[in-house]
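Figure-free illustration: sequence to structure, shown twice.
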Amino acid sequence: MGKMIAVRVDDKLKADFEDFCKNVGSNTSVMLNMFMRNVTKEKRLPFDVKYYDGDKKEKQVDNKS
């Protein structure tokens, strides 16, 4: 058995994610493990990350290693 990770999330987000997992025939634990394996294997996030600097200009984080 692996290590446990505790994460605080919004109740609706948790419920929506659990519903999604169920609809694709999976569960939260399996999906989060898939996400973590993909990130560590690919050394990148599977989505773009954007933020706004102090001047309210959109910036994109370089997500490619």
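We now fold a second protein in the same way, so the two outputs can be compared directly.
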Amino acid sequence: MADLGENREISYPDISIKAKAQDYIGLDMKKLNDEKKIFLESVAPQWTNTGKEREKSY
């Protein structure tokens, strides 16, 4: 950019920690964590049981 004559300082958001970066891009972490909790309590156990049933035939 400097070759084209653009020498201004460019300001960047503070994304020095994960939480600040998530906030900057608009992630609703509370909502995502709530959805993850529901997933882990309902879907993940079903997958585990399906896998156990499948492995019985091995």
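Summary for the second example: The chain has a mean pLDDT of 94.
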